[in-house]
C-alpha cells in the first residue's frame, strides 16, 4: 500500500485536531456543572456525545473524500465534521448555542449542517442512512462522481432504515458507503447482546455488496479499505459496508456513570491509543521527525483554541429568533 | 358571449398533468414511490408518466417507506425536487421519523441553511369500506407538527394548480389527495371528481382557502369530501330559505384564518365539517381560533361535525 507523505501528514493533523478538540470540550462541558451536575447548565448545555478514541473511523476514510462528497453523521459527529473540513469556529459556536454557529444556535452538537461541504447530521439513530442514499442518487442523476458516506454506530445497524437503505442503494447501484463504528456499546447494551452476527460487514452479503472489517481501531487499515470502497463507489461499482472496531474512551454521553462497563476496559483501550501509535509509526516508518510532529500539533491546537475563543466571544441569538426558519 | 368550452379532467389526471408539466420544465423534478411506474400510482397520480419520462425519473421503489422518503429528503437537500408518494397516509407510521423529524425539521435545525424542497403526496380518506388502517385522513396529525406545509385540494383545478405550487415551493409540502375525488374507475363515481382544468400551466397558492358559495346566514368550512358534502348541504339549505356560505379550506398549514374570520363576521354562524377525528382535530383548531379572535362575531355556538374518536369501521352500516 502506498500512501503519500501529504496524506500521512493530513491524517495526523486531523487525528490530533479531533483529539485535542474533544479533550478540550470534555473540560469546557464541565464548566458550570460542578459541584452539582445539571445537564442543562453551564457553558455548553444539553447532551454531549464525544468521539474521543474513535478518530480513525472518520480520518481513515475522509482522507479519500472531496468537498462535493456527501457525509451524513449521527449523534456523535464531531470527528466526522472535523475530518470533512468543517469551519471549526462556526461548529464550536453552534455547540455553544451562539448566533454565529452553523445553524445560528438552532441545532446544537448533534445537529451540525454545512451544505457547502454536503455535511449533515441527525440525532435519530439510523436516520441519516437514507439521506446518503438520496444524496448519492442526486449525484448520479446529475452525472457527478461524488460518493455518499453514512456514518452510523453499530447499534444503528439493527434499525430498519439500515436494511431498507442498503437494499435500495444496492438495487440502484448507488455510490453509498456505510461506515459502522462499532464502539462496542449502544449506550449501555453490549454489541454482543444486540446483534445476531459477529460483525456488520457480514450483512453486506444480504444485499450483494462489498463488506469490509477493520479490527483494533487501526487507522492505516481503515485508510486502506476505505480507499478501495471509495474508489469502487466513484467508479460506479456500487455500495459497501465498512465496520471498524473502534474505541469509545468516554461514556455514551458526558455524565454517563458507565456501571455497565468492566473497570479496566478503558485503560486497556487507551494503552492502544491510535493517536500515539500513529505518531510513533510516522517517526519510525515514514521519516517524520519530532519537529514536524510538533509543528502539526501546534498548528492544530492553535486552530482549536481559536475556535473556542470565537465561540466564547460570540453572542447568543435573540430569543425572538426562535420563531424564524420554520419555513424558508 | 360564447361560453368557454370546458376541458374536463378527473382529479388523478389533473395531478399527473401538473407533475408532467413541471418535469418537462425542470430536470430536478422526479417521482419515487411504490407502484408509481407501470401501474401509474395506485390512485393514478402518475398515470402515463413512466411512458413519457422513463424509469430514471419515474422510479418504482421497494416497499420501504423509510428508505424512499429518506432518500427523497437526501436528494432534496442536494437541490433536487423529488416527489415521493406514500400510497396511503395510514402508512405514515412506518416512516414518520423521516417525515416529521427529518423532512420537516432539517430547515429549522440548520438555521435555514438547508432547504428540503420536496413533495410528499399521499392518498387520504375513507367511505369505501377499507377499514381502519386504510381510511384515515389524518389532516390534523400532520398539521400539528411544525415544519411542513400540509395541503388537501378538493377539485381537479386545485389539484393541478396546487401541485405545481407544491413542486416549486422551497419547503417540504405534504400533498394530500382524496382517493374518492381522484375519479378512478374502480371507486364511486362523483361529479365533483371531474372538473374543468386548463391545459396550460398555472398555480393555485398554498395557504389560501376558497369561498365556493357565498352566503349570509351561516358559514360552512369543509375540505375535500366534506366540501363536497357541503355543496349538497348549501343546496338543501337554500330550498329551506337559509343562505349558507361554503369555504373549501384547501390548506391545513398554513391555515387561512383570515378568510374564515371574514366570513364569520358576515354570517355570525359557523359549522366545521371534517373527515378526521373530532378530538384535537382541524375542527377543534378552527373553533379555537374563532374563540380567540372571532368570539364577538358569533351569534350561536360553533358546531362541529367530524368523525367520532373511533377507528374507522369496515362494515357499511357502521362506516
Structural class, judged by helices and strands of chain A? alpha/beta
Q: What is the CATH topology assignment of the largest domain in chain B?
A: Rossmann fold
Q: Tell me what portion of residues of chain A adopts beta-strand conformation.
A: 5-15%
CATH homolog superfamily of the largest domain in chain B: Thiamin diphosphate (ThDP)-binding fold, Pyr/PP domains
Q: Give me the side-by-side strand order of the main sheet of chain A.
A: 2-1-3-4-8-7
Terminus-to-terminus distance of chain B: 47 Å
Query: Biggest interface: chains and residue counts?
Result: A-B, 43 and 41 residues
Fourth-level CATH superfamily of chain A: Thiamin diphosphate (ThDP)-binding fold, Pyr/PP domains
Low-confidence stretches of chain B: none
Specify Rg of chain B, calculated over alpha carbons: 19 Å
Largest sheet of chain B: 7 strands, mixed
Tally the helices of chain A: what do you get? 10
DSSP helix fraction of chain B:
25-40%
Average predicted local confidence, pLDDT of chain A: 97
Mean pLDDT of chain B: 96
The CATH architecture of the largest domain in chain B: 3-Layer(aba) Sandwich
- Which oligomeric form is depicted? heterodimer
The CATH topology assignment of chain A is Rossmann fold
Amino acid at each position: 500500500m502506498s500512501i503519500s507523505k501529504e496524506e500521512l501528514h493530513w491524517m495526523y493533523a486531523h487525528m490530533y485536531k479531533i483529539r485535542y478538540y474533544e479533550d478540550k470540550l470534555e473540560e469546557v462541558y464541565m464548566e458550570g456543572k460542578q459541584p452539582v451536575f445539571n445537564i442543562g447548565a453551564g457553558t455548553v448545555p444539553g447532551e454531549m456525545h464525544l468521539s474521543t478514541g474513535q478518530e480513525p473511523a472518520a480520518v481513515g476514510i475522509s482522507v479519500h473524500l472531496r468537498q462535493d462528497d456527501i457525509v451524513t453523521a449521527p449523534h456523535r459527529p464531531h470527528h466526522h465534521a472535523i475530518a470533512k473540513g468543517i469551519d471549526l469556529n462556526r461548529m464550536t459556536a453552534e455547540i455553544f448555542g451562539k448566533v454565529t454557529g452553523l445553524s445560528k444556535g438552532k441545532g446544537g452538537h448533534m445537529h451540525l449542517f454545512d451544505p457547502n461541504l454536503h455535511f449533515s447530521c441527525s440525532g435519530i439513530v439510523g436516520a441519516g442512512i437514507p439521506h446518503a442514499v438520496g444524496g448519492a442518487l442526486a449525484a448520479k442523476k446529475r452525472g457527478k462522481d461524488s460518493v455518499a458516506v453514512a456514518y452510523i454506530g453499530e447499534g444503528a445497524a439493527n434499525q430498519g432504515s439500515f436494511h431498507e437503505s442498503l437494499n435500495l442503494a444496492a438495487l440502484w447501484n448507488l455510490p453509498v458507503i456505510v461506515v459502522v463504528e462499532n464502539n462496542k456499546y449502544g449506550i449501555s447494551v453490549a454489541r454482543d447482546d444486540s446483534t445476531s452476527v459477529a460483525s456488520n460487514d457480514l450483512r453486506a452479503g444480504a444485499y450483494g455488496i462489498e463488506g469490509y472489517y477493520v479490527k483494533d481501531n487501526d487507522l492505516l487499515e481503515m485508510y486502506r479499505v476505505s480507499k478501495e470502497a471509495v474508489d469502487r463507489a466513484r467508479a460506479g461499482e456500487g455500495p459497501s459496508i465498512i465496520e471498524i472496531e473502534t474505541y469509545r474512551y468516554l461514556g455514551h454521553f458526558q455524565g454517563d456513570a458507565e456501571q455497565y462497563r468492566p473497570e479496566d476496559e478503558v485503560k486497556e483501550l487507551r494503552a492502544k491509543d491510535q493517536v500515539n501509535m500513529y505518531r510513533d509509526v510516522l517517526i519510525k516508518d515514514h521519516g517524520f521527525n519530532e519537529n514536524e510532529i510538533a509543528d502539526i500539533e501546534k498548528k492544530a491546537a492553535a486552530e482549536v483554541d481559536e475556535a473556542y475563543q470565537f465561540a466564547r466571544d460570540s453572542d447568543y441569538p435573540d430569543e425572538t429568533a426562535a420563531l424564524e426558519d420554520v419555513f424558508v | 358571449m360564447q361560453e368557454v368550452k370546458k376541458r374536463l379532467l378527473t382529479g388523478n389526471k389533473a395531478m399527473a398533468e401538473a407533475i408532467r408539466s413541471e418535469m418537462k420544465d425542470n430536470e430536478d423534478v422526479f417521482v419515487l414511490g411504490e407502484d408509481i411506474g407501470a401501474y401509474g400510482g395506485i390512485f393514478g397520480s402518475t398515470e402515463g408518466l413512466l411512458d413519457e419520462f422513463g424509469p430514471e425519473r419515474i422510479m418504482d421503489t421497494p416497499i420501504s417507506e423509510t428508505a424512499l422518503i429518506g432518500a427523497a429528503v437526501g436528494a432534496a437537500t442536494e437541490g433536487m425536487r423529488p416527489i415521493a408518494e406514500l400510497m396511503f397516509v395510514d402508512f405514515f407510521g412506518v416512516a414518520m421519523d423521516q417525515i416529521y423529524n427529518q423532512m420537516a425539521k432539517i430547515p429549522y435545525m440548520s438555521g435555514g441553511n438547508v432547504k428540503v424542497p420536496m413533495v410528499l403526496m399521499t392518498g387520504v380518506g375513507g367511505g369505501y369500506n377499507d377499514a381502519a388502517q386504510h381510511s384515515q385522513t389524518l389532516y390534523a396529525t400532520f398539521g400539528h407538527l411544525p415544519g411542513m406545509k400540509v395541503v388537501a385540494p378538493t377539485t381537479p383545478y386545485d389539484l393541478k394548480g396546487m401541485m405545481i405550487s407544491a413542486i416549486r415551493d422551497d419547503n417540504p409540502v405534504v400533498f394530500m389527495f382524496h382517493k374518492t375525488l381522484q375519479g378512478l374507475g374502480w371507486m364511486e363515481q362523483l361529479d365533483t371528481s371531474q372538473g374543468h382544468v386548463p391545459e396550460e400551466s398555472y398555480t393555485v397558492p398554498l395557504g389560501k382557502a376558497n369561498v365556493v358559495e357565498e352566503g349570509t346566514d351561516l358559514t360552512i368550512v369543509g375540505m375535500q369530501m366534506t366540501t363536497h358534502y357541503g355543496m349538497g348541504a348549501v343546496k338543501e339549505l337554500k330550498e329551506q330559505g337559509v343562505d349558507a356560505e361554503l369555504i373549501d379550506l384547501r390548506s391545513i398549514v398554513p391555515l387561512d384564518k383570515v378568510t374564515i374570520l371574514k366570513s364569520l363576521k358576515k354570517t355570525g354562524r359557523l359549522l366545521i365539517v371534517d373527515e378526521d377525528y373530532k378530538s384535537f382535530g382541524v375542527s377543534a383548531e378552527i373553533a379555537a381560533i374563532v374563540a380567540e379572535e372571532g368570539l364577538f362575531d358569533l351569534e350561536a355556538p360553533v358546531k362541529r361535525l367530524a368523525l367520532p374518536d373511533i377507528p374507522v369501521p369496515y362494515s357499511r352500516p357502521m362506516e
